[in-house]
Amino acid sequence: MKTRDKIVHAALELFNEHGERTITTNHIAAHIDISPGNLYYHFRNKQEIIREIFKEYSTELLERFAPFEGNTEGLALLKHYLSSIFSLMWKYRFFYSNLPEILQRDSQLHSDYIQVQEKLQLNLVNIIQLFIDLRFLSIQKSDIEAFVTTLHMIVCGWLSYQSAMSPRIKVTEHVIHQGMLHMICMVKPRATELGQKQLELLEEGVTAMYELNQPAMPNSMSA
């Protein structure tokens, strides 16, 4: 792996584990055993590293939420998009946890973020229309954009909301799973009878996924 890529991956790991605000370029350099000067050869400051992480995030985001073309099975699509939400929130959790502050510090990043979100909004509208065509959802055309915006707000604000409600909270897979279940709950009132059944299956799958990832409890009867 090239040094530039190592810096980006190390920064993402440290930001996720300790919070972006507490990590400096010296921490990042030490984490991959290079000198600060070597890091500055690739990035002038921490903000440039954050921008590079955002580029990777944006590419992955738009790829994962591209409208699907061709015949497909509806439940598989639901699983794909919900899994994508979880994967992105977990992989880039520092960004979701502290989004407003990160954007306020960097006007260029804020501008780039808005452009990406506008593209994403169009994709999400098309995805919701697909689920309407599959008779999973029943939503008036005039309400689709507002519905998409509501779901988008839940995803973007979920980790910030959790932090606000409990300052000492640690972002875990469980916290993100709870956000996914909340999203399913928001979609249910708009689902058809067929859609309700598929969402219930999806809900069971999300719960099972969380339980599967939990460490085994110690046997209380053991010596």
Automatic annotation (TrEMBL):
Record feature DNA-binding region, as residue ranges: 24-43
InterPro entries linked: Homeodomain-like_sf, HTH-type_Tx_Regulator, HTH_TetR, TetR
PROSITE patterns for the chain: HTH_TETR_2
Chain ranges passing through the membrane: none
Record flagged with keyword ATP-binding: no
A Pfam family the protein falls into: TetR_N
Residue ranges constituting the HTH tetR-type domain according to the UniProt record: 1-61
Alphabetic keyword roster: DNA-binding
Gene3D superfamilies: Tetracycline Repressor, domain 2
Protein name: HTH tetR-type domain-containing protein
